[in-house]
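If you are new to this repository, start here. Below is one unmodified record pulled from the training split, so you can see the exact layout before writing a loader.
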Amino acid sequence: MNFDNLMAVSPIDGRYANKCSELQEIFSEYGLVKRRVLVECTWLKALAAEKGVAECRLTAAQAKAVDRVAAEFSLADAQRVKDIERTTNHDVKAVEYFLKEKLAPAFGAKGAKTLEFVHFACTSEDINNMSHALMLRDGKKVLRAAMDEMTAKVAAMAKEWAKVPMLAHTHGQPASPTTVGKELAVVSARLRRQAGEIDRLVMPAKMNGAVGNFNAHLSAYPKVDWEKLARKVIESLGLRQNRLTTQIESHDGIAELFDAICRWNSVLLDFDRDVWMYVSMGYFKQRTIKGEIGSSTMPHKVNPIDFENSEGNLGLANAVLGFMARKLAISRMQRDLTDSTTLRNMGVGFGYTLIAIRSTQKGLGKLELNADRLAEDLDRNWEVLAEPIQTVMRKVGMDHPYERLKELTRGRRVTAEIMQDFVKALPLPKEDKARLLKLTPATYTGLAAKLAKLA
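And here is the target side for that same chain:
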């Protein structure tokens, strides 16, 4: 099928396709069918290796054929599955029929009975939940690599600018100074913490039949330890067994993963907005790229479009992932089908997340520190030294220190001269007075430079 991304309904497959192309193999219909085939093949080989299932045995050549079908699954194979589905009107049954057809030449007439063990005792959800878990496992690897690259960039900037003083703004108002590096280190630490929560999660899966009790399995082979065999298959694919399920794996693990990604995304969105503000304040300049246009009518503009793009896409990602996390945990009795169509949108949430990460990275690559503007803002706000002055006054037991500094500074600009004259008039110990007189907004940064190195 030829596809022109100018005709794409979603920007994930159109305008932004090059920012998340590695997700196509994972979350596409092809990716889902490919993983269904892998699960079916893994189950068939496990049955053949189980001593208690004597009727299912694979020769070395047949086992290689099974491995080959899974390893070499192609777009043409996926298309054949879809062709079969047009007759069956059932997607998982189409995979079963495809495998029997594909393996028939290698199995021959003598192996025809063995092919009946394809999809043996399975309900569709045994195959689907495993396939979705594998898609999420593989998609998580892509996201985590991008997340780590993003975080490493922020951490590197934190260390580079660890000692660069910057006026802080609490409630949007001038506040005690910090350093550029320390504020970036806060972001890198937050991102790493949430990434750790994502890493902690191993996708649960089930392979226990129509309503989760191994009913069909035991009717055929009552002496086989089906729980153990299912666990072996599940864990061989890097997943963990959920022993208590209905017909579906309950999706709580998926909800946990999506919520964890949403939290990581929220930290990045917060960062996008802060950088946007710092650009608007002139703390950062943006490196111009030849040929780029900022505004269709105002030639001078260099807009922070990458951070805006990221913010919008993060909002979309969290809306999709957040809805899915809430919805997927709910299913009527042993199952309903509302999860099926919902799960087909997993790649949408991952896609918007990846697009956002790469937009922020692009934006960071254009940033240049405006040291002059940072210094200018610090020098215009000597009133921020009211905090250390009244703190020292408290230490030595002077009357009403907070109130006296409040009267001097609140709601007005205070010059260096005014602040220093105030300190000179205070009956402070010599060392305390000398230290306060030496202090400037640019040097009043506490341990910020040291803390920035923790990034």
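Two things worth knowing about this chain: The longest strand covers residues 173-179. The CA atoms of residues 396 and 429 lie 8 Å apart.
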